[in-house]
Amino acid sequence: MIKYTDFIREIFKPAPDIINRAKAYCSQVRGEVDLLIGVHVRHGDFIKWNSGRYWFPFSHYLMQMEQASRVFNGSRIRFLIFSDDPELNVSLVKNLDFVFEHNAVMYDLTLMSMCDYIIAPLFSSFSGWASFWGRTPVFKLNGQNVVQCKDDFVVQTFLNNSREYNKQFEVNTGD
To answer: How far apart (Å, rounded) are the C-alpha atoms in residues 5 and 2?
Structure first.
């Protein structure tokens, strides 16, 4: 798989119009900030999948965003919030620079891949693909971990969301 990663990226590259629109928007929202951090709030199917183990309330993502702000202290950060919940209550966000829009899936995936970092739930193939395609470091939420340093963000060098690969990020709950 690693040998063919560039070939795979090329085959599954989004359509040129999506890439161009995402690049233009990305340039616009970068504005006066140093970093764009994508936050993938996966709510839809994750509430039932695996007994909801990787479904987190928005307050959990917000805590991770605040912690990332401390980790990247001194950097001006804008968070791009992506979610499958078009009615996500982002009014909880205080004192953080963020953008939340609910767009077409491929456009959001492309835009997420253009962020500098991604915060996302474990086992999300959507954010896994964005990390892989954009070579964007991702912090995988397991429900108990918290961003502590830049090294907690890992580039997914190959698209693998298997249980075996993700074991390194899981918390043993005794199940």
So the answer is: 5
